[in-house]
Design brief:
By secondary structure, this protein is of the alpha/beta class. It has helices at residues 7-14, 34-41, 59-68, 84-93, 111-120, 137-146, 163-169, 187-193, and strands at residues 22-24, 48-50, 74-76, 100-102, 126-128, 152-154, 175-177, 198-199, 218-219, 222-223. One of its GO terms (cellular component) is SCF ubiquitin ligase complex.
C-alpha cells in the first residue's frame, strides 16, 4: 500500500520490485508516468491491483499493465477518470485470469467496451459498473448472458438501465447492488422478484483493496497477526 503520493518515490520503489503479488496505489497521482506503469508491469505474478481514485492513468500505461500482468485476479480502476480510448484498450487487453473488476465511475464505458470485456474476461465472478452512465439495459443483458460465472453485479446509479432489466437478467446472481437506482417504493417489488438474490448488501466495493472489514487482520487475504 502506498504511504506517499510522491510519484518519484513510488517509481523508485516499484523499479526495484519484480515479485509483487498485491499493490494498492489508491488516491495517488501517477502523473501519466510511463516508467511507473512499466515498473508495475514487470511484476508478472501480480494478482491484486488497486488504482481506485488515482489520477494520471493513461491508455499507454494501463494497457501495458493489462498486457503483461496475466495472473491478475482482482483489478480496481474505479473513479480514475478514464477516457474512452483508455477504456477500449483495457477491455481488449485484460487477462482471462481476472475474477473481479471495478470500473465504477467510468462514464465513457459503452456497450462496445462491455462486449470486449466479456470476450477478454469470461471468468468474471464480480463486476462493479456503478455510475457508468452509458451502460444500458442491452449492456446488462449482454453481460448477464456472456459472463455465465458472474455472481455479483454492482450497478448503482446506472440510470440508463431500466429497472425491469434487473428482474429479467439478474435472477442467477448471488448479489445485486443498485443503490440510488430503484425508487424506495419499488424496492420491495424487486426483492420479491429476485427472492434468491441478496439486493443492496454492500454499499462499498472491496475489489482489490488490501484490507476489508473492521478487524483488518489480513492483507489481500493473507493473515498478518494472530487473533
Amino acid at each position: 500500500m502506498a504511504v506517499t503520493r510522491d510519484i518519484a518515490v513510488i517509481r523508485d520503489l516499484l523499479c526495484r520490485c519484480r515479485h509483487l503479488r498485491g499493490l494498492s496505489l489508491e488516491n495517488c497521482d501517477l502523473d501519466n508516468d510511463y516508467e511507473t506503469c512499466l515498473a508495475i508491469s514487470r511484476n508478472g505474478d501480480l494478482k491484486f491491483l488497486n488504482l481506485a481514485l488515482s489520477s494520471g492513468v493513461n491508455a499507454e500505461g494501463v494497457s501495458l499493465i493489462a498486457r503483461d500482468c496475466r495472473k491478475m485476479i482482482e483489478l480496481n480502476l474505479s473513479w480514475t477518470c478514464l477516457d474512452h480510448k483508455t477504456v477500449n484498450s483495457i477491455c481488449q487487453l485484460l487477462p482471462n485470469s481476472l475474477l473481479k473488476l471495478n470500473f465504477a465511475g467510468c462514464r465513457s464505458n459503452t456497450m462496445t467496451d462491455e462486449s470486449n470485456l466479456t470476450d477478454s474476461c469470461p471468468n468474471l465472478i464480480e463486476l462493479d459498473i456503478s455510475d457508468c452512465t452509458e451502460i444500458t439495459s442491452k449492456s446488462l443483458k449482454m453481460i448477464a448472458e456472456r459472463l455465465t460465472s458472474l455472481q455479483v453485479i454492482s450497478a448503482s446509479r446506472c440510470y440508463a438501465i431500466e429497472p425491469i432489466a434487473y428482474i429479467h437478467y439478474c435472477k442467477h446472481l448471488v448479489e445485486l447492488n443498485v443503490f440510488s437506482t430503484i425508487k424506495d417504493e419499488s424496492m420491495p417489488v424487486l426483492k420479491r422478484a429476485l427472492k434468491n438474490v441478496l439486493v443492496n448488501r454492500n454499499l462499498f466495493s472491496t475489489i482489490a483493496r488490501p484490507t476489508v472489514g473492521i478487524r483488518r487482520s489480513s492483507i489481500w487475504g493473507q493473515k498478518t497477526r494472530d487473533d
